[in-house]
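request received
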Amino acid sequence: DAKTTQPPSMDCAEGRAANLPCNHSTISGNEYVYWYRQIHSQGPQYIIHGLKNNETNEMASLIITEDRKSSTLILPHATLRDTAVYYCIAPNSGGYQKVTFGTGTKLQVIP
Amino acid sequence: NAGVMQNPRHLVRRRGQEARLRCSPVKGHSHVYWYRQLPEEGLKFMVYLQKENIIDESGMPKERFSAEFPKEGPSILRIQQVVRGDSAAYFCASSPTREGWDEQFFGPGTRLTVL
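response:
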């Protein structure tokens, strides 16, 4: 698995876009980038994943740099319910869910 | 569609007792994973099971811990002779396929407190 690095915490005003960065400079060509979040006292929740192209779904957008060494998760209009710890992981292709989630980024959405 | 269910949600044990944590995967999911989350830390992989088989238990301590996923019934994570350091949140996840990262669902976790 590629090592990922995220800032420990971020604040975002309610209604504004939250941009959460992740560095994964050792990622290999076939490793996807996945994002999960964990709301307090709950299990992690899958958000989005991508390989090379930018991705968007109903929850978020994922922007991956051309060299694939970093990515940004974008929550376009953050709400108070988006307050959570966000994890960026890059598991080995062909591997099952054998990965350690780092400490992630604690996003606090402020009213 | 019921998600992953774990019980109990909270479990208190005294040192030396046994803890049994149960996980019922999403209906139709045959791949189950257990993770442990120590306070203020991220989740760490413990064990990966398919029905009646342990595929990878490399993240599980070699002593006192065991896991099973029988043909019928929930997956069980068993901790014998618990110690204070076992206090953590234990999460179970299930997926329909081996690599179903985007189809993986986590349960709400069991919070184990060892007195």
